[in-house]
Amino acid sequence: MTLAKSKAIFDNDDYNHFPEVITEPKSPVSEAEMMQAVRTLLLGLGEDPDREGLRDTPKRVVKALKFLTSGYQQSLDELLNGAVFHENANEMVLIRDIDMFSSCEHHILPIIGRAHVAYIPNGKVIGLSKIARICEMYARRLQVQERLTAQIADALQGLLQPQGVAVVIEATHMCMVMRGVEKPGSWTSTSAVRGIFADSAKTRQEFMSLIRHSPDFH
Ligand SMILES: Nc1nc2c(ncn2[C@@H]2O[C@H](COP(=O)(O)OP(=O)(O)OP(=O)(O)O)[C@@H](O)[C@H]2O)c(=O)[nH]1
Ligand SMILES: [Zn+2]
């Protein structure tokens, strides 16, 4: 199937109307105000925001935070770019070890980990890279790991109406490592299963056994 032909099918398809909700409104705060707030933070920390090393820090922090939360500005429609194709595949598709960087919404500190995403098609498949892009879009928002996991699963379920979707995220939270309870080496696993992965223990186990042998996780 050519890409052009696939796109034509895609254009007529109902997945275009998958209700992607942008949960965050456009910001009413200017960059100048954000930089001023970072300057205040620096003062609060007892620093001198006018010393050479910190002079451009408010600007850098705002730029970095905007990048780390740039998923708010994206939508599924935009990132898919038409890459959903009709295909009579009905075996499990698994992408494992998708690197992931998110930010916890409680402390705005990094969540670092990997996602494993599987689905069993039901007439439609998605461009493989788009699965990683969907993970990135939701990761680049302020998150809790459970919601991030569920959002990825629900996006694929809504886009493809597959037989089922399974998502596992294994991550370490810097708010639990560098501060607070200070537990380096702790990993949090979350899963979200939909359709046949929820209904069939055998299918779920097949997925779990395929992702299990990753050497980095225990
Ligand atoms: N369920 C869940 N909790 C998270 C996630 N990221 C951070 N948290 C937790 O959010 C909780 C916030 O608890 P609070 O007691 O309000 O904040 P805190 O005083 O900074 O808590 P400590 O981290 O225990 O020092 C902490 O237990 C964090 O570990 C996440 O992705 N999922
Ligand atoms: Zn946190």
UniProtKB/TrEMBL annotation:
<dbReference type="InterPro" id="IPR018234">
    <property type="entry name" value="GTP_CycHdrlase_I_CS"/>
</dbReference>
<comment type="pathway">
    <text>Cofactor biosynthesis; 7,8-dihydroneopterin triphosphate biosynthesis; 7,8-dihydroneopterin triphosphate from GTP: step 1/1.</text>
</comment>
<dbReference type="GO" id="GO:0008270">
    <property type="term" value="F:zinc ion binding"/>
</dbReference>
<keyword id="KW-0479">Metal-binding</keyword>
<dbReference type="GO" id="GO:0006730">
    <property type="term" value="P:one-carbon metabolic process"/>
</dbReference>
<dbReference type="InterPro" id="IPR043133">
    <property type="entry name" value="GTP-CH-I_C/QueF"/>
</dbReference>
<keyword id="KW-0547">Nucleotide-binding</keyword>
<dbReference type="InterPro" id="IPR020602">
    <property type="entry name" value="GTP_CycHdrlase_I_dom"/>
</dbReference>
<dbReference type="InterPro" id="IPR043134">
    <property type="entry name" value="GTP-CH-I_N"/>
</dbReference>
<comment type="similarity">
    <text>Belongs to the GTP cyclohydrolase I family.</text>
</comment>
<protein>
    <recommendedName>
        <fullName>GTP cyclohydrolase 1</fullName>
        <ecNumber>3.5.4.16</ecNumber>
    </recommendedName>
</protein>
<dbReference type="GO" id="GO:0046654">
    <property type="term" value="P:tetrahydrofolate biosynthetic process"/>
</dbReference>
<dbReference type="Pfam" id="PF01227">
    <property type="entry name" value="GTP_cyclohydroI"/>
</dbReference>
<keyword id="KW-0378">Hydrolase</keyword>
<feature type="binding site">
    <location>
        <position position="175"/>
    </location>
    <ligand>
        <name>Zn(2+)</name>
    </ligand>
</feature>
<dbReference type="GO" id="GO:0003934">
    <property type="term" value="F:GTP cyclohydrolase I activity"/>
</dbReference>
<dbReference type="GO" id="GO:0006729">
    <property type="term" value="P:tetrahydrobiopterin biosynthetic process"/>
</dbReference>
<comment type="subunit">
    <text>Homopolymer.</text>
</comment>
<keyword id="KW-0554">One-carbon metabolism</keyword>
<keyword id="KW-0862">Zinc</keyword>
<dbReference type="InterPro" id="IPR001474">
    <property type="entry name" value="GTP_CycHdrlase_I"/>
</dbReference>
<dbReference type="GO" id="GO:0005737">
    <property type="term" value="C:cytoplasm"/>
</dbReference>
<feature type="binding site">
    <location>
        <position position="107"/>
    </location>
    <ligand>
        <name>Zn(2+)</name>
    </ligand>
</feature>
<feature type="domain" description="GTP cyclohydrolase I">
    <location>
        <begin position="35"/>
        <end position="212"/>
    </location>
</feature>
<dbReference type="GO" id="GO:0005525">
    <property type="term" value="F:GTP binding"/>
</dbReference>
<feature type="binding site">
    <location>
        <position position="104"/>
    </location>
    <ligand>
        <name>Zn(2+)</name>
    </ligand>
</feature>
<keyword id="KW-0342">GTP-binding</keyword>
